[in-house]
Design a protein that fits this description.
- About 70% of the residues lie in helices and about 0% in strands.
- It contains 11 helices and no strands.
């Protein structure tokens, strides 16, 4: 068996710059990971595990936050819960068999859910890359650094991988994008304006607030670029 030469590898990677090629690759990966009851069940179990870990992280400090604000306070746990809801919506299609994941039913409600889940997962999947590295020395010197630094970075990057599957079967609308952006801005105001930010080893200031807002704006832009539109509706 011959190995591909460097030129063919580069040509293959170059083709990924084409939107049509990226869509086909995404659809193939989504079908592989979500297209059977067993694979979807495994992914749902992993999502449930990450949700439990997230709840455990926020629970000790949740008592200091008004209950109506919990959905915006528990950033990572809510992101995983939204992602889990998107996957659960696929269960009837996958259990029925005979249809590709990309052919799953769509609706306005699902478009809003899928868009918000995508934005939250991307935002809080990337957020630790900034928040932990602003105090890198404190986190890597902590007694449980393998959990509080490497573990957090690794699991949160899985958020990004999960979110990137959603455009293979999901939809968005201008209204869904606007709602996601408004909630993202409100989340930044809550976290850094009112002081209800996630538990950290340091007191965050304007740099983290600005970076979080930038990541959220990028996530909404990525949703706009990645998702097909739901029939051109708002």
């Amino acid at each position: 068996m011959t190995e591909p030469d460097d030129g063919s590898v580069l040509r293959s990677l170059g083709r990924l710059r084409r939107p049509s090629v990226r869509r086909r690759v995404r659809a193939a990966i989504a079908e592989e990971l979500l297209g059977t009851p067993r694979s979807l069940g495994v992914l749902l179990a992993f999502v449930a595990f990450m949700f439990a870990v997230g709840v455990g992280y926020y629970a000790p400090t949740a008592g200091d936050v008004p209950v109506p604000l919990w959905p915006l306070y528990a950033d990572s746990a809510v992101a995983v819960a939204l992602g889990g809801a998107v996957l659960l919506a696929l269960v009837p299609t996958v259990r029925a068999g005979g249809s590709a994941v990309a052919d799953a039913p769509t609706s306005r409600a699902l478009a809003y859910l899928q868009t918000l889940a995508f934005v939250w997962l991307i935002t809080f999947g990337l957020w630790p890359l900034v928040s932990l590295n602003l105090a890198f020395s404190q986190y890597v010197a902590a007694p449980d650094a393998w959990i509080y630094y490497w573990g957090v970075l690794g699991t949160h990057l899985c958020f990004v991988g999960l979110a990137l599957l959603f455009p293979a079967f999901g939809r968005t609308t201008r209204g869904a994008l606007a709602v996601a952006l408004a909630l993202a801005v409100g989340n930044v105001v809550l976290d850094y304006g009112l002081g209800y930010h996630p538990p950290l080893l340091y007191d965050p200031g304007p740099p983290l607030a600005g970076a979080t807002l930038a990541i959220a704006a990028f996530s909404v832009w990525l949703a706009w670029r990645s998702f097909p539109r739901l029939g051109g509706t708002n």
